[in-house]
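Q: What does the predicted 3D structure of Na(+)/H(+) antiporter NhaA look like?
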Amino acid sequence: MNPSTSTSQPTASSEAAFAPATTDADRSEVARLSAIMSKETIGGGLLIAAAALGIVLANSPLAEWYFGLRDSYAGVQVGEWSFEMSIGHWAADGFLAVFFFLAGLELKREFVAGDLRKPSRAAIPIVAAFGGVAVPALIFVAINWSSPDTLHGWAIPTATDIAFAIAVLAVVGSKLPLALRTFLLTLAVVDDLIAISIIAIFYTSALQLWYLLAAMVPLALYWVVAHRRRDLFRRDLGAAWYMLLPLGLVCWMLFYLSGVHATIAGVLLGFAVPVRPRGKEDPSLPSLAETFEHRFRPLSAGICVPIFAFFSAGVSFSGLGGDGDGLLAPVSLGIMLALLLGKPLGITLAVWLTTRVRGINLDTSIRWLDVFALATLAGIGFTVSLLIAELSFPVGDPSHELAKVAIFIASGIAAIVGGGMLWFRGRSHARAGADTHAEG
């Protein structure tokens, strides 16, 4: 998406809403979402490049070096106490926690001050996100029902990769209504919340309750300090590093030791950051959540997520067999059909059912072909899908590599097909707009 185009159109504020009325808050929300999209576009490009490099190295003469680096251990030691993980686990459990911290910030921002606080606006993308999770999961379960060993991966095709999808949308969607682009971002935010809940509930290893209870102490202190000193942190972000970062690290480590996936700590820490300024503060200044989001998004999109993609995407295609028959295995077939068919069917059907309710309608600038094209693009499952694949099947299990290869193939097809459909829809919208202008 071209940020200058999205913020300078005189009709942007009306397109962004799922209801016709607009306010100054609506216009501010459109500008904020447009800025997020432009940053996620860059992150999506880096994500794709890092994943491609990981795949190339894993299937090259440097494969032994690559896998050796991924599986080597690093950590810290203080006296007799030590904490260490493999580099691959640091990428998935540590670096990706920054991505989930931003997800927590964005989710809280949307629920407190964004579109998700308004039921009339939030209903369609929320229900669409649930449809886009349920139908792919059902397709995967149906295909793997007779294969109990792979059923544990049912959640792999339920996630939509926000950075990857927006990167594609940025290339092909400059002529699409802003309401459609906002719809994708809102759907992806809710999708993230569902994926986070799935990981927390279904992909937690043996729970160590005492560690989990202990994690509540630094989390509560983090909340208190963030709220009490929010004015200081908005002026001096350096103060947040030495006051909040240690609490966040302790909370993250205790979550990891508890058996709950450590990225959940990132989400909860994001929720602990205040979204609204206090009454005595200048409301024109950005909130602490917006300040953190502005500073941490480049770190997440430019470093943390690409590092995760680099180490997680590195799978050897030798596991597919010489004739590629591995793609017909239940786990591979289930993931590909779930992402390529389940996502568009689930999202489109959910939107159709929601609009049957009186008073809930799509924005007038969005057509049903737009919805289906966007739902096809939502079949790009990458970052969170790869993470769930890591949690579903251990390294060395044939399903581990088959699942990741299936994610790559399905995501690539969804990007090409969904992106192509949206490109044609953008041309159609541009022609319709030109005709309307000529008639006027």
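A (community wiki): The structure tokens above were generated from the sequence. Confidence is low (pLDDT under 50) at residues 1-22. The chain has 18 helices and two strands.
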